[in-house]
User: What shape does this take?
Amino acid sequence: MASGEDELIAWLRRAARGAGGEAIGDDAAFLPPGGPWAVTVDTQIEGVHFLPGLAPERLARRLLAVNLSDLAAVGAEPRWAVLALAVPPGFACRPFFRALLKACRGHGLRLVGGDLARGERLSAVLTLAGERVPGGRWVTRTGGRAGDGLWLGGRVGESALGRHLLARGAAWEGRGVTLPPPFEAPRSLAAAARRAVRRHLAPKPQLELGRWLAGRPRAAALDVSDGLAIDLHRLCRQSGVGGRIEARALAFPAALDALARRLGQSPLDLALAGGEDYVLLFALPAGEQPPPAFHSFQIGELTSGPGLLIEGEDGIEALAARGWDHLATGTEAGAGSQPRANAPIQKNPPPA
Amino acid sequence: MASGEDELIAWLRRAARGAGGEAIGDDAAFLPPGGPWAVTVDTQIEGVHFLPGLAPERLARRLLAVNLSDLAAVGAEPRWAVLALAVPPGFACRPFFRALLKACRGHGLRLVGGDLARGERLSAVLTLAGERVPGGRWVTRTGGRAGDGLWLGGRVGESALGRHLLARGAAWEGRGVTLPPPFEAPRSLAAAARRAVRRHLAPKPQLELGRWLAGRPRAAALDVSDGLAIDLHRLCRQSGVGGRIEARALAFPAALDALARRLGQSPLDLALAGGEDYVLLFALPAGEQPPPAFHSFQIGELTSGPGLLIEGEDGIEALAARGWDHLATGTEAGAGSQPRANAPIQKNPPPA
Assistant: This one.
């Protein structure tokens, strides 16, 4: 059930044996092995990771947030950033850097270097290094055990709805999100739509939750970036366990649910395979629970396996590893991947 | 005389004050400030940094070599690599990674993590971390003093000739470089052409020379990537000195000279502004010289300034800061930049 990307990464881990490959496939690499530094890298390419026309400031903040989410997943304290930026002629470099530097400062990060190139497409690659929390331990995907509670640090599926709205013409300019006409009314729908767009463009990395997890005697975590289902498969595979989740734990509130259906989307599908949620998916020993301030909620538990199950209204089913496969294309997508999410974001999507 | 890129970087250093910006603009950032780690990042984008159709293995090795050259410039021992790769459908990922891992092993580097994405254009961003040589010191651009000898670690201009040949249809497949017909004969020309193509596609980072420099009581260095003239201006500006070089020290051997003229290029222009040479440009106190094994040669000396001069057959002239300006375009290029080198590499260049 592994995606093309997961297969390549598994191959790479084997091929890289002796050259550091054992770390490949985690949210961050620990340096020296097991040491006090965590390093992670993320890419944002125009037309692939974001729609053309995104304001430079928003791109800068989103690039950083997405990357910080990987540090949050391992429980690291952000320290340094290195940027590689390829810009088309006329790109507003200074607003981009001003926003990036301000956001870096807010997280105690130092931008220490980078590389600047021309490119036809705007492309930004950020490498971050974080430090282990004093007295804490690294949180990885391997720390789950059968019987652990499975938790989410926040709602999943809302970001994907925001992506659908942006593809249909929603925009975030200045302080307000504008919506394409069919989503302007009723008011409850519009409020949910605006929240979804903000959620997509301005994810909030759960660094505090990651620090808390780093202080536990045992925990496993990753951040939900490619889709809950595929990321849960990764957590279970790397921990050597199975899992079981409840569909009702993923239910949308009424307005969000109505918005999803208006967009022709199944709320459960969005929650399972939408991706780009950037909340932490984590496992804790049974009985342990995070402080209420984190607004985490339990969605199921790890089992002795094999396989992953989801319990819904119609009973218990196998949970497919759906979500983004960064190497699949619309036509080549495997049985477990989601062609919609795999296709590049279109510049001129069909009207809703 | 600063380029658009240098201006942006100078602005960024000011804007980033308090957020680590003091390190921006060097070949590598030292972490923690003045500490034992050097971090650098480099980008290779299809159509910008290399011609479409480059074999994945060659791209992998070139990406690493170009990046290692930055570590060589500061005298660092390569340690870790993190890769962000964006690939179009059908890209041969495994040959790319096999070649990259093998090249990493050869330099004692561990590939510890990365990010994989789809992209319309092949784009690879590599972040490297290196460690200070035991007992050595960091080599920077600021360590030059008036009276120092100015040295090059190898010939400059040959790589740019290779780039011209590739744009005209030369190719390196398997073990042999094939040339477009006009360069197949005479034999001496063909040999020089093949060497130039190899020099362009497979630069050799001068890590040994960098280690030697790191062991000196005082040295300044950078690697010649954007062009000798512009990089020499950077060295002098950051060391607060002037400089003077001799054109005859940059002369090509006869066959290479003939090849350049056949391609309609001035050998001296190629040497001064061709770029992508990836040899070290360094300054040493007068009287010191590198061991002969490095094949370095002196090209001039640093002066109390102001400005940079070049002594040629027609006397002494000011040396313009020519070379690649990563932010300039053909039409917007400043007086000091070189429109030819600034334009993206063309897929279908006009015939020679």
Notes: The CA atoms of residues 309 and 319 of chain A lie 5 Å apart. The two ends of chain A are 32 Å apart (CA to CA).
